[in-house]
Amino acid sequence: MGTPDGDRFEVLLTLIAAYEEQHFPIPAADPIEILHFAITDMGRSQSELASLLGSRARASEILNRKRALSLGQIRAISAAWNLPIALLAAPYRLEDDAA
């Protein structure tokens, strides 16, 4: 840092990040997809989710997009599974929503 080479690499890093953002944007994550990822790839289970949400039926409704997550549920999942609240609180479509 503070050297000509360091400054040059800082500029290059900024240019590369801007290029990638413009040409290869990463779409926003869907909260239900995040829950499915946590269950399949992070070693969590639907039973654990059911415990956090209060019932297996509630967990199933949420995972099948029949019911939206409430703020309390988002907070509980975030705290237990170390997932950012902002990711779980993002808008997403429910089964009844128009496609």
Descriptive account of the structure:
With 99 residues, the protein is mostly helical. The chain has helices at 4-23, 31-41, 46-53, 56-63, 71-81, 85-88. The longest helix is centred in the first third of the chain and has 20 residues, at 4-23. The chain is elongated. The chain starts with a helix and ends in an 11-residue tail after the last helix.
Which structural traits does this protein have?
99 residues; 63% helix; mainly alpha
Number of helical regions: 6
Order of helices and strands: HHHHHH
Structural class: mainly alpha
Overall shape: elongated
- Helix fraction, binned, reads 55-70%
Q: Mind summarizing the main beta sheet?
A: none
The total count of strands amounts to 0
State Rg.
19 Å
Unreliable residue runs:
none
Q: Whole-Å distance between the termini?
A: 50 Å
* Approximate strand percentage: under 5%
Mean pLDDT across residues: 92
